[in-house]
Amino acid sequence: MQAIPTVVITVEPEETAQARVSRALQPRGFRVGCSLGRPGDAEFQKRILLDALDLLLHPVEPGLVVARDYT
Fold first, then answer.
1. Which of 2, 41, 51, 52 is 20 to 30 A from 22, comparing alpha carbons?
2. What are 4-28's pLDDT values in tens digits?
3. Can you say whether the dihedral through the CA atoms of 52, 39, 27, 44 is positive or negative?
4. Rounded Cα–Cα distance for residues 17 and 19 (Å)
5. Which residues contact 53 (CB under 8 A, 6 or more apart)?
6. If you write DSSP's letter for every residue of the chain in order, what string do you get?
7. Which residue in 40, 35, 28, 46 sits closest to 8, CA to CA?
8. Is the dihedral of CA 43, 37, 67, 13 positive or negative?
9. Cβ atoms 66, 60 nearer than 8 A
10. pTM of the prediction?
11. Start-to-end Cα distance in the chain
12. What is the rounded average pLDDT of the residues 28-51?
């Protein structure tokens, strides 16, 4: 049986850690409902999505929530 690789983008790192997901990205300072940043800012949102997908290529310790700052 093969697993399907997944990654979570979260603004609630404590709750995500409790769920024991395999990979997670936390954009620091973002709030619930805006986990990809400002509405309508496609380029900025794409940057966050690419960083999340990068976790699939460069795995981290299972259950670790990777926090990154975005400006």
1. 41
2. 888 999 999 999 989 989 899 999 9
3. positive
4. 5
5. 7
6. --PPP--EE-S-HHHHHHHT-S-EEEETT--TT-TT-STT-HHHHHHHHHHHHHHHHS---TT-EEEE---
7. 35
8. negative
9. yes
10. 0.87
11. 41
12. 94
**Amino acid type, 26:** Q
Task: Kindly state the tokens that stand for 50.
Answer: 């690419």
Pull the structure tokens for residue 38.
Answer: 């400002």
Q: Which residues pair with 67 in a beta bridge?
A: 26
Residue whose entry in the numeric block shows the structure tokens 């697993």: 3
